[in-house]
Amino acid sequence: MTASILPAAWYTDPSVHAAERRTIFAANWALFGPEHEVAAPGAWRAACVNGWPLIVARGRDGVLRAFHNACRHRGAAVVPDGAGTAEQLRCPYHGWTYELDGALALAPRFGPLERADHGLMPVRVATWRGLVFVCVDAAAQDLMAWLGAIPGLCAPFPTDAMDYHGTFTVEGRANWKTYCDNTVEGYHLPFVHPRLTGAVDPAAIRIVPHDGGRTVAFHVTYRADGAELRGREGLWFYRFPGFQATLSASAFKAERIEPVGAGGLRSTSWQWFGAIDGAARADGFAWARAIVEEDLGVCATVQRTLEAGVFARAVLSDEVEGNVALFHRLVHDAIGGIVS
Ligand code: FES
Ligand SMILES: [Fe+2]
């Protein structure tokens, strides 16, 4: 048994949340969404990710780019959150107009202005397996280096031929770390997820940390009665701080976890399916959401305890919660020097 190195207050303190955005979420890649949504020249999509309003747009030259969705005049959103197709992007406030490569094309009636200095602020963007990732830190490692062990782990699970099914978002009343503490351990599975536990062989789950705990892989074997839908083998993985996915022969789900203040989080998932029928797809999609809701339900009660101010520190099992300790070490290493 070890004591958690993260104090309960780090799950509730707004200054810790602010430090985490600067040092953890800015420095890492975040899942933005499916690449097929921005496939055509002129297609754009805007969303707020980890508190940063962003635009991802496909230029007429076919190049995918990302920008802060902040007009260089006085900061209005250049486009509303959502999606569209455009020749140019025009801010609705005073009409400043940008090319899809971010260059400022027009600043009506403004007077003298160095247009080259007032393009949209770029954000890094890269793709892997049909997923768009973004990173607001120009100095961060590139996406493939950041993914580390993940492409190799996923190699037995091809997803190219799968069909996109849909997306869902669930808001949780818990700090993002409360949810990630839960995500990296298998201890809770039989208690919180009875249907999921019934679908896999509990004795055959192997949980393996990679890259110092930045990635935690769950290798699972589905029971024979459900295996005709999914295939026999499955992979669930988490990548610090806010990306996780599940893969099998017939399903692929990618999820973004993001903080919403100190006491909230947002989980957004995108789902693809392989060769299974419509009823099985509908069931699999609803089930994926139910699993997220089961986790967020118990996490909300943990968060309530942490916010009550009576609970100093969790205790962790060396047997089954070693990856929670690794997760705490990553958080501590990132912000331990700047918060107390
Ligand atoms: S804030 Fe965009 S044109 Fe003024
Ligand atoms: Fe869970």
CATH class of the largest domain equals: Alpha Beta
How many domain modules?
2
Helical stretch tally: 9
CATH superfamily annotation of the largest domain:
Naphthalene 1,2-dioxygenase Alpha Subunit, Chain A, domain 1
Low-confidence stretches: none
How is the main sheet built? 7 strands, antiparallel
Strand content: 25-35%
Hetero groups in this structure are: FE2/S2 (inorganic) cluster, fe (ii) ion
What's the architecture of the largest domain in CATH terms? Alpha-Beta Complex
Q: Which value, in Å, is the CA radius of gyration?
A: 21 Å
* SSE-based structural type: alpha+beta
The CATH topology name of the largest domain reads Naphthalene 1,2-dioxygenase Alpha Subunit, Chain A, domain 1
Distance between the termini: 24 Å
Give me the count of strands: 19
Q: Give the SSE string.
A: EHEEEEEEEEEEHHEHHHEEHEEEEHEH
Could you say which overall geometry the principal axes of the C-alpha atoms support?
Answer: globular
Keywords:
340 residues; binds fe (ii) ion; Naphthalene 1,2-dioxygenase Alpha Subunit, Chain A, domain 1; alpha+beta; Rieske Iron-sulfur Protein; seven-stranded antiparallel sheet; globular; 19 strands; binds FE2/S2 (inorganic) cluster; 27% helix; 2 domains
